[in-house]
Input
Amino acid sequence: MNFRLAFYLFIAAFAMTINLPAIAQDDLMDLVDEPEGKQYTSATFKGSRVILGHSVETKHKKALEFLISHRFGRVNSGAHNLYGLDNANIRLGLEYGITDDINFGIGRSSFDKSFDTFLKYKFIKQASNGAPVSVVLFNSLALKTTPKEEDDPTYSFNDRLATVSQLLIARKFSSKLSLQVMPTFIHKNRVETFDDNDQIAIGAGGRIKLTQRLAFNAEYYYRINPPEGSPYKNSIAVGFDIETGGHVFQLHFTNSITAIERSFITETNDDFFDGDIHFGFNISRTFQLGEKKKEAGW
Output
């Protein structure tokens, strides 16, 4: 079985297992009303990212996370470029828990010299005798600062903006398996002639826990309405989470070189199955700025 086939089988298994029709039959208001004695599911994913995109995890109230996201050049660029290590894109970000369920974040990426900000709101929580899934609303705003005004005076401030809206729907099936789907809408105010302003994508990701501190993750975004003749590819990533007391290291291989949704979902240039693969990593460190509430869950 080649890797491409294995990956598609993984996505198909995800779609069948998540049992979306059953979820649609539930009364959402019943999910929001919390019956007494329910036990919420915790640690569906280890970090705030599946790999490239956000997971349903939110930071606790008054928790501050510092996140470094690094993507190197193509591994197949050869020894002269040290197999991609000579080139890199980096995003530095801060994420803060306004409440246990509402998070705010800001970041700056070297790709397109972009700034981004986002809000996450977890409005449904998976529980042992309640909701079968956790659902998070994610909205982000990105501003790219290239080209500079003196290089292209036709670019206005408004032209540089893009928004991303996602629903993150995840279920922790057991202590070893978690899966997530991410319907996504992206609007870019100004695009190239071959691109469209509005694009829709559906993402799928999952986590398989291998040991107490090691997990395998995979993530894929399928663009539903790519413009005809678009040179861009669907984003794919596979990797490992390694937890070491207060730090979470995510090591991964992907065809995307950026770390914000606007660009890695709709502007990935490289073909994963042609060997255009980038090594990258995320490192996060969380600081608790207030008293942490004791969490009950499984």
User: Anything to note?
Assistant: The mean pLDDT is 87.
